[in-house]
Design brief:
2 copies of one chain form a homodimer. In chain A, about 50% of the residues lie in helices and about 10% in strands. With about 325 residues, chain A is of the alpha/beta class. In chain A, strands 3-2-4-1-5-6-7 form a 7-stranded parallel β-sheet, sandwiched between helices. In chain A, strand 2 (about 75-80), helix 5 and strand 3 form a beta-alpha-beta unit. The radius of gyration of chain A is 22 Å and the shape is globular. Mean pLDDT of chain A is about 85; it is low at about 85-95 and about 325-329.
């Protein structure tokens, strides 16, 4: 295992891939590796990129990666793919466009499917980012297709969150799920050559003024044309200024900066999420094993018991669940 | 309390409202009421309506309600509102359009905000539906704005799920979150007078043929123009044929029909969700109380401990959590 840690720290792409697969499949043995690797993290800067399908996120990631490589920075990319029969084709196409970077040892690309991850996806992505951070990547880009609750969770891994839109997204601004606009540190209007790009940017700016609480950081709006690489430099500059803002603002309590404070908050949240998920897995396993619990579930299914009150009654009698901590609330 | 049950069964709108507020706020006292009411449920038919913002869902609900009332059926409506500063205005407008039904004692309308509900929203909605079912409503319509993970969860309450789109949603088909198309029992293309409506319907039909596993029930595509009430009768006919399909198909095991089987599955899922949520609330409360757990959380925040492995280690030592059932996995 320590051998694996050393190899990840040395940037061995094959071992990194294997560790990542273990993480996705929740192999218990990987826990000690992650624990070791964590001591070597904190140097990478993580960017989250989200927005509706079709705005050109993959092209943006491709171009931004090219720009970062030209600056001498190494890059890790985690692309979260929704698992729908309807989107398979276009996603594959996106990935093919990224292929030139597959040959570059300074770039590591990993696709993560939402399949089978359920609510655990954000946690998996956080662990993957930790691996790439330990492996010495300077910048890690996490890209999600879609703007739902799961994507919001995944964005929780990022230091800077970029929400990408395009001129045709005019109606889409309201389509964006509640919460997406609120978490953005930076907006991007791609395909800026199309009609309505300036109008879109202006609409975004005025929406931000209406909706946002006054804050020290006002999310800028960057216009790009990713297919030609236009605006990518400006995008990186704005990301750098957000990073600078986070690094130079004071953190609460013992935290040296706002960046450290927010990273600390995210780590604490990750701990709670992991506990929650594991507890539920164990609860389900226990129900499957215990005959009395099984018959409660059956009676709920056939209408003899009501689900909500049955759950409350079970929790009020923790001996039935075999759990002592339940009685302490 | 039994008085409250009797009043709900009698359709007392004021008591129904009060019980619903208690449910949203998770007052423990309401548990016994829900338990009693459950014995009087199973008669209502529940329709879920979802789709991207702007397709006219509120107008559809309004028109469908009018149609059902004309048929002599009573209607319960639960409208789930996202809680975003960007959507407040338009939602309010939607609600105003529904106002004519507020004066009709055969219609009960309830708005539920996503605010503060977190992952518990689907469970709250299920309890609200149970109350309306017990109160004797013939048809219950649950409308959600948006197409994210939470909305998918809310749709889990419905016997028939209708996904509404419009001609301009052409690009939106891929915008729909993975899973939404898969759960639809019926598609609806509203604003069917606009250009591209037939093309949209044809595209949906061919997508369904490519993507769907062969099933006994093939989701029909209904064209509507809700602002004029056109297609509403056809919509209801298709809902009725889905209901008929569910009622006449054989159920697994002891279930009399597929409808009963699916309702049983949903009740069992609701039980597990309630347990999961309650357990997590108790876990959080315990962490806040216990000094040793608090210091683990702090060390995770300041980087001394890694979140994922710390959670695993804590779960491996259930005495630390004060829980005996944790050790049984």
């Amino acid at each position: 295992m320590n051998d694996d840690v050393a190899r990840v720290l040395g940037g061995d792409q094959r071992v990194i891939s294997r560790i990542m697969t273990s993480l996705e499949r929740r192999f218990p043995a990987v826990t000690s590796v992650i624990k070791e690797l964590d001591h070597h993290t904190g140097n990478a800067y993580t960017i989250g990129l989200t927005g509706p399908p079709g705005v050109g996120k993959s092209t943006l990631v491709d171009r931004l990666t090219g720009h970062l490589r030209a600056l001498g920075l190494t890059v890790g990319i985690i692309a979260v793919d929704p698992d729908s029969p309807f989107s398979g084709g276009s996603i594959l196409g996106d990935r093919i466009r990224m292929q030139r970077h597959y040959l570059d040892s300074g770039v590591f690309i990993r696709s993560v499917s939402t399949r089978g991850q359920g609510g655990g996806l954000p946690r998996t992505v956080k662990c993957l980012v930790r691996v790439l951070d330990a492996a010495g990547k300077d910048v890690i880009i996490v890209e999600t297709v879609g703007v739902g609750q799961t994507e919001l969770g995944v964005m929780g891994v990022a230091d800077t969150i970029v929400v990408a839109l395009m001129p045709e997204s005019g109606d889409t601004i309201q389509t964006l799920k509640a919460g997406v606009l609120e978490i953005a540190n930076l907006f991007l209007v791609n395909k800026a050559d199309r009609e309505g790009a300036d109008r879109m940017a202006a609409a975004l700016r005025s929406m931000l003024q209406i909706a946002a609480e006054p804050q020290d950081w006002e999310p800028p709006v960057v216009l790009t044309r990713a297919d030609r690489g236009e605006g990518i430099e400006a995008l990186w500059e704005e990301i750098e200024s957000h990073r600078n803002y986070l690094s130079t603002s004071a953190g609460a309590g013992d935290y040296r900066s706002l960046l450290e404070e927010r990273r600390g908050e995210r780590r604490r949240a990750e701990f709670l999420e992991t506990l929650q998920e594991e507890l539920f897995q164990r609860l389900k396993a226990r129900i499957e094993r215990e005959q009395t619990l099984q018959s409660i579930v059956e009676d709920i299914g056939n209408g003899k018991l009501e689900p909500y009150s049955a759950a409350s009654e079970l929790l009020a009698d923790p001996a039935a669940l075999g759990s002592s901590f339940l009685s302490n609330e």
